[in-house]
Amino acid sequence: MELSSELKKEMYWMMLLSRRLDERAWVLHRQGKIAFHISGIGHEAAQVGAAFALKRGHDWVTPYYRDLALMVSLGLTPEEFMLSLMGKAGEPSSGSRQMPSHFGLRRVNAVSHSAPVATQAVHAAGIGLAIKIKKEKKVVLTTIGEGSTSQGEWYEAVNWAAVHQLPVIFLVQNNQYAISVPPEMQMAVKSAADKACGLGLPGQMIDGTDVFAVYKIIAELADAARNGKGPALVEAKMYRITPHSSDDDDRTYRSREEVEENKKFDPLLLTQKRLMDEGIYTEKDLEGLDKKAKQMVTDAVKLAEDAPYPTAQEAAYPVYAEEVPNV
Amino acid sequence: MSEKSMVEAIRDAMDEELARDENVFIVGEDVGQRGGVFRATVGLFEKFGADRVIDSPLAELSIVGVGIGAALYGMKPICEIQFADFIFPAFNQIISEAAKMTYRSNATWTVPMVIRAPYGGGIGGGLYHSQSVEAFFAHVPGLKVVIPSSPYDAKGLLKSAVRDPNPVIFLEPKKGYRLIKGEVPDEEYVVPIGPARVSRFGEDLTIFAYGMMHYYALQAAEQLEQEGYSAEVIDLRTLYPVDRNTILESVKKTGKALIVHEDNLTGGYGGEISAIIAEHGFNDLDAPIRRLAGPDVPAVPFSHPMQEWFMVNPEKIFKSALELARY
Ligand SMILES: Cc1ncc(C[n+]2csc(CCOP(=O)(O)OP(=O)(O)O)c2C)c(N)n1
Ligand SMILES: [Mg+2]
């Protein structure tokens, strides 16, 4: 499968826009303008590649908090992300009830995410079951960090999908850390993909810094799943370039040298180089795009800063799908 | 009208709802060919097929989590937990996911599902086939908690639960499955979730109960009658959200309240009823509020004399009610 230059450009744009949004979130945090940020820097290739492999608005996703680039690729706007960072009204995942990055976007079938890790994997199995019962040609993508594959919830979800041959792709983003804990303290296998053989579905480890490779592999698996070929488990490897979150100090558990060394595999830089090598973009083109992305982010920040907060009264609902007396 | 047992009424409700709405399906352990260990789903697998009556892997959290996923997709799962004692692996999915989904997503996502579980002791089930679990769930906004005590209510409430757009915890007093029989209309009906039911009118005191204890409370009231006291009996039926008006109106009339449940006393559901009366009906009281409940030991012991020591029964209710009536 040869990817068109157009497609490559689109993917690069989503990586770039997500990166600039993410970086701005860190700045806003350091300026004291937002309370919290959890970053996806280093994850963009895996997430954008996976998102582009889906039929947006047709297929389903149960994402996790690291998935900014995935969500932006699916259609989350810069303004919407900034509204969530600032806890403003009109934020689409939760009306700013949840912390930022607890994603969810109904209009693209991206299910609301909570904080307890791995719960979303089970929902993906349930969505897959519904798709299978209704005999529809759709796939569910569910994402997770490698550390969270230690949870029983995750094993039960994968087991369900394998037993019932459900159209679910389990994408594990192995960024080498679960806060401070490395993968070898989470699992005795080399890759979370190796867990597949014990559960009865195909598993593979892929390079999570190569956006085009991720796209090709997930697109193929998605196509198979939509056509009744069952689930798949993929581990995409990358490096978490930032601390776990804005509340974390990663100097307490990893060296600066290690981080600097891994920045060589920053997927944004690797993709830029590829696009230039392939003659798709010149350095000047890239500069222009960068300017455009930064401007979009600045505009989004401005819009969000000017937006109102939700009223305190909104906190009282909606507890139920309809009005309930006495509650 | 036909005479039915509790478990037959429950099965009829599911049979009718499966036939009414193609989105309804049953998932749980041994619910298929076996028809459930309590026979609540007998014949449904044969009638509706393996896509509508699904034998799950032996894993409760994913019975519920998969149900949630399917509900998010627009289906109406009826999840059967084989015994309420085994609902705890699913606690996270119920509390963190099902209960909070509507609120946390600003109602962009909702979870229309039913979780059925047989509960309660007095059946020789020992610690792990006897527990009452209602207090854990009747604390949680976003859930509805329903406990029927008659075949009529069991059928009508279960049909309402299936049609409800929210997660409903439907606890079935397993001792009453075959013991409690009653008239059930042959034609279609539902019993709304919410209102309590005054099942016996009286003047001297009110006994509040639900499930098996309500069945016993009616027997105790008969006995009290012979002693010259007229007891009002209220079947709470919906524990959450609770029907405060019916509770307070009755206390206004009788001035005395006895609250009965078989769950442990401390932190049990009776505390909430007691608090409602104390806060809003204090001036109507002619005697201290009484609670009669299971003792504060971890669960119901197996050996018969020890089990009977634990269990609340008609005689214990009669004695407690008589003391209160004479106060
Ligand atoms: C059930 C649960 N336990 C603990 C936490 C706290 N916590 C949040 S993220 C995290 C690490 C997750 O690591 P990993 O799964 O590798 O994902 P990553 O953050 O690296 O993308 C922990 C321990 C949580 N959110 N949920
Ligand atoms: Mg990780």
Walk me through this protein's architecture.
The complex is a heterodimer of chains A (327) and B (327). Chain A is an alpha/beta fold and 327 residues long. Helices cover 43% and strands 8% of the residues of chain A. Chain A has a five-stranded parallel β-sheet with strand order 1-2-3-5-4, sandwiched between helices. In chain A, helix 8 links the parallel strand 4 and strand 5. In chain A, helix 1 packs across helix 11, helix 2 runs parallel beside helix 3 and helix 2 runs parallel beside helix 8. The mean pLDDT of chain A is 97. Chain B has 327 residues and is an alpha/beta fold. Chain B folds into two domains: 183 residues, Rossmann fold; 130 residues, Rossmann fold, CATH 3.40.50. In chain B, helix 1 runs parallel beside helix 7. The model of chain B has no long low-confidence stretch (mean pLDDT 98). The chains are: A alpha/beta (327), B alpha/beta (327). Chains A and B meet through helix 5 and helix 6 of A and helix 3, helix 4 and helix 5 of B. The site of magnesium ion (MG) has 6 residues of chain A, from loops.
List keywords for this structure.
heterodimer, A: 327 residues, alpha/beta, Rossmann fold, globular, B: 327 residues, 2 domains, 7-stranded mixed beta sheet, 5-stranded mixed beta sheet, binds thiamine diphosphate, binds magnesium ion
Number of alpha- plus pi-helical segments of chain A: 11
- CATH homologous superfamily (4th level) name of chain A: Thiamin diphosphate (ThDP)-binding fold, Pyr/PP domains
Beta-strand content estimate of chain B:
15-25%
Low-pLDDT ranges of chain A:
none
CATH architecture of the largest domain in chain B: 3-Layer(aba) Sandwich
The class by helix and strand makeup of chain A works out as alpha/beta
Cα radius of gyration of chain B in angstroms: 19 Å
The chain-level mean pLDDT of chain B equals 98
Strand content of chain A: 5-15%
In percent, how helical is the residue content of chain B?
25-40%
Strand order of the largest sheet of chain A: 1-2-3-5-4
| N to C succession of SSEs of chain B | EHEHEHEHHEHEHEHEEEHEEHEHEHH
Number of helices of chain B: 13
CATH superfamily membership of the largest domain in chain B: Thiamin diphosphate (ThDP)-binding fold, Pyr/PP domains
> Pairing-aware structural class of the strands and helices of chain B?
alpha/beta
Helix content of chain A: 40-55%
CATH topology of chain A: Rossmann fold
